[in-house]
Amino acid sequence: MVSGYKNHMNFHLHVPHLHLLHHHGKEEVKDIPKGFLAIMVGQGEEQQRFIIPVMYLNHPLFMELLKEAEEEYGFDQKGPINIPCHVEEFRHFQDLIEKENSDHHHHHHHGGGHHHHLLCFRV
């Protein structure tokens, strides 16, 4: 368990571009509730905007998506975080994260088998 914690500690999330959301239009900021974050999922015409809870940033599945985004785009991208994943597959990830958070909340345990769910990378 300690080694898993260290793995999370070694991953650094740099989001200097988040403050730019405020400058793109006030209506864009107003539709993001406190405790949530706007991200873009998909590529090209498939790309869609998602509003996700900030707590996703600590979830191992989402951290894998962020690592893929870093490999694909680097940290120099402008605007919201872009996730290189098909929209439908990302929705599946959301369902898994929500189910896991619900299970974790109700059962007070957390399994480590996240990697078998990682199916959507390299679009």
UniProtKB/TrEMBL annotation:
Pfam families with a match to the protein in the record: Auxin_inducible
Provide a GO biological process annotation: response to auxin
PANTHER family tied to this protein: AUXIN-INDUCED PROTEIN-LIKE-RELATED (PTHR31374), AUXIN-RESPONSIVE PROTEIN SAUR32-LIKE (PTHR31374:SF15)
Family indicated by similarity: Belongs to the ARG7 family.
| Protein known as | Uncharacterized protein
Species assigned in the record: Camellia sinensis (Tea plant)
High-level lineage: Eukaryota, Viridiplantae, Streptophyta, Embryophyta, Tracheophyta
